[in-house]
Amino acid sequence: MEKYQELIGLVESLKDDFEKFYDKNNKAAGTRVRKGMQDLANFAKDTRKEVQDIKNAE
């Protein structure tokens, strides 16, 4: 469940920047949103590989 908590933390950390970008048209927040989404994509790829490795080890 540690990975799940890390995922939740990543998503929650983006909330303020999403609000600033979409509701207040803050362009700098958009840059942070894009970076956060890239971090999330990398996390997803790494987690997917880890799950596959664990599954194949059994």
Describe this structure in words.
The chain has two helices and no strands. The model has no long low-confidence stretch (mean pLDDT 96). The chain is mainly alpha-helical.
Name a few traits of the molecule.
elongated; 58 residues; single chain
Helix and strand topology:
Layout: H1 2-24, H2 27-57
Helix pairs in contact: 1-2
Say how many strands there are.
0
How would you describe the shape? elongated
What's the helix count? Answer: 2
N- to C-terminal separation?
19 Å
- Sketch the topology as an H/E string, one letter per element: HH
Note poorly predicted spans.
none
Structural class by sheet pairing and helices: mainly alpha
- Share of β-strand residues: under 5%
Q: Determine the mean pLDDT.
A: 96
Q: What's the alpha carbon Rg, rounded to whole Å? A: 15 Å
Main beta sheet: strand number and arrangement? none
Short description:
It contains 2 helices and no strands. The protein is mainly alpha-helical and 58 residues long.
